[in-house]
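Deviation from plan, reported transparently: beta-D-galactopyranose complex.
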Amino acid sequence: MFRRIRVLTVLSLLLIGAIMQVGWAGVARTNKLEIFSWWTAGGEAEGLSGLFSAYKRQYPNVEIVNATVAGGAGTNAKAVLATRLTGGDPPDSFQVHAGLEIEKYAPDRFLESIDSLYRSEGWERALPRGVLTLLQFKGHYYSVPVNIHRANVLWYSKKVFADNNLQPPKTFAEFFQVAETLKAKGIAPFVMGDKEGWEAGHVFEVVLIGVLGADGYRGLWTGKTAWTSPRVTEALNTFKRMLTYTNTDHAALTWDGAGQYLIDGKGAMQIMGDWQDGWFQSKKFADYGWAPPPGTTGIFDALSDSFALPRRAKNRENALNWLKIAGSKAGQEAFNPKKGSICARTDCNQSLFNAYLQSAAKDWQKDALVPSVMHGAATIESWATKYKDIIALFVTSGDVARTQTALQAACKDAKVCM
Ligand code: GAL
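Because the crystal trials were delayed, the predicted structure below was used instead.
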């Protein structure tokens, strides 16, 4: 009798232990969700926490582990993520740009296709065709987009411009006139923070678009435009000249650190993506203006952040629910107004967005769209990284001929140029 009770007690203890391990009824239900991104700056962090809140509203019992690796444009995060994926320790879901950047993470080996989610969630109807095309890799979807960012924005201090009776420059000639006027007044005309390297590549991509136009720029990534062309030389010379108007501490600052110049009225213009709008909001700074950088009126240099599903995610069910929220109207409305981006979906309520974002949403509809290279849309990561390193070096060397040769070689390495 006592023996039976003892055996039963031991058995029930074992059962309780098993339930605690794998969840009731044998389903491996976990209460965690690890989300990997590089969103730590002002605006980025607020946007992400908006998305977390949208998730929490539906899944209040899941604890979200916010696995961020600081560094703009994923400079540090991408390498950490690759190591985790190849080492068999994936996060449950991770940030990746829509476009060829996904190739870096070997989707065939390390990611799960989420085609079925696209069907069940109706995403093919909710997202624009061009974005859907960008998201497909070898005919499958591996990630769901949360937003559209614009890379080509010239942010300026309204006060500095008004005090000096200036208008935002539409051409490079106007840019240099404005810059001269401001330099004479002791204001940093063109603010940069290129500490992490990618920021210079970002500005140069915008200069390339301004000099080559939408078609010319697009062709650089498809082999239709030669990197050896005189227009690329012109773009390099233009960028070199722009660099003579930057703040002296540019190499010590990140993109957001540089933005402080505009807040303080010590700097006038900055070319950066519209996460800057989210950052300004997080700083409660409202006295900024925006315009297309020189030569890019009517062109929208686009990129999109998305979330992917690794194979062997520890909390797969929670990750699938996360992706559903990320692709939902409620999720995107919670995220984008704070992040400084517009929805990837076409049905978001525009009244939730500030004046800048409303204007970006309109431009997105009518402008010529070009893919950002520094943010994963234009080409594979290995080529984008070479491009980034070459331009970061150019900031210090100023060697136009050598830089152009290196850019051409990078295109050859990617087997796009002959
Ligand atoms: C981009 C990313 C944006 C923004 C920016 C700066 O690559 O798409 O969401 O965070 O980097 O970190």
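The domain at 150-302+371-413 is CATH 3.40.190.10 (D-Maltodextrin-Binding Protein; domain 2). We consider this an acceptable substitute for the interim report.
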